[in-house]
Amino acid sequence: MRAVSDEAPLLDDLMPWSVRPLRIGRGWPMAPDPACLRARWALLTGAPDATARAALLHPTRARGPYTPVAQLPGHRTPTTALAREDGPCPEPVRVRHGEFDQQWLIPDHRLIDTARPELWRVADDRQVFTVEPAYPSEVPGPAVVFSALLPDGRTAAGKPSRIRPLFRQPGGLEPNLAPGLTRWLSVRLGVRVEAEDVLAWVAAAARQSPAGCLVPLTGDVEVWRDGLALGRRALWLHTRGARFADPQAGRDPDRLRLPGGSRPYVRAPLPAAPLPGESAYDPEERVLRIGAGHVSPVSPGAWDLTAGGVRVLEAWYERRTAPGERGTLEALCPAGWTRTTTSELLELISVLTLLAELGEEQGDFAERLAGRAANGGGGALGAGELRAAGILPVPAARRRPASVLGHHEEGPDGQFALL
What we know:
alpha+beta; 419 residues; 4-stranded antiparallel beta sheet; single chain; disordered N terminus
C-alpha cells in the first residue's frame, strides 16, 4: 500500500480516471508534416505486391495486413483489411507528442497497435488532457503538462505517462474528479468551484513526489484565487491558447505573443534542409543558430527549459531533422524546412519563454503554500479531511471510462460496432 502524506492528496485521487499512453507500434504514421504522411501512405498502398506492402507496414503482433479493427471514434476511416486498401490517406490530425511538441498522426486504427479509443471518444473542443509522468523524475521539469490536443502519453524521452481527461463524457460532461470534490471545496472556500477551477489549481500547485503527483489544497479563498489566476495562465500556455483564453486577462485565444522587443525573429535565413546536430545556442547573444541561420532573441529560460530530462528545443529540432531508417517508410522525411516549420519554431520559443517566466511564479507559489502549511496556517486541506468528508477513497467505477451512449462506430469490414 502506498504511503501518502496527509498534507496533500494525490492527483490520482482527485482525477481518478487515467489512461495509459498510446502505443503506435511503428514510427511512420506520425510526422511533423501532414504532406509527408500522405506520401508515406501512397508508397504503402502503391506497393507492387503483398510482401512489399507488409514489409512497409512494419507488422507487429497487434497489427498486420489482415488485422480486423474498428474505426477510431470520430474518424470515418475505412475498416477493410490494409492488404486490400487502395484509397486516399485518411486526413492527418494534430496530436501532442511529448510534453510540448505537436505532430501529425494518421488516425487509422489499422496502423496503431494500442490507440486507446476511450480517449478519442472524449476528445473535443471542451476537453483538456492532463499528462502525468508514470515515473516521477528528480530532474527539473513540470510535474504535469496539459493539452487540448489528444496526447500520445509519452515524454520527450519516450517514457510513459498517465493521461487524465478533465471530462469523462464528450461535450464537457461528467468531470473526471472525485465525486463531491467541487461541492465540498465550494463550501469550504465560500465561492463556487467548477471542474475547470480544480484543473487550474492543479496547474498552479501540483508537485512531484516519490509517491506521485501531489496537489496541495487550501481553504484560504485569497490563496485559492491567486492559484487560479496562475493556473489559468499555465493552461492557456500549455494549450497554445486553445483553452482558458481571456483577452481581458491578457490571454488572447490562439495568439501567444511576447512583448515587443522580446519576440523571436529570423535574423539570418535558415537552411532549406538543416542537418542533425546543426543547432546551437549562444547565451550571451541570445541567438539560436541553425546552420548559417540565426533566430533571436531566444531567452536562456526558453533554451534551458527541460521536460523529462530532455531540453525541449533540442528534442523538437532533432525530431525534424533525424533521418529515418533506410528501406522503411520513415526514410521518407519532410521535403525540407518550410515557412510553416519556421512559424512553429517561433511559436514554440514564445511559449517556452512565457512558460519559463511563469515557472518562476509557480516556484514562488509553491514556496508560499509550503511555508503556510509548515507554519500550521494557510487553511491547508489534507487528504485526511477528504477521507473524513467521504470524498476519498473514490469509487472504483470512477477509475474506469464512462459509458458513451449514442456514439456510433464502425467495426471491422464495415460492421456496426456496439458500445
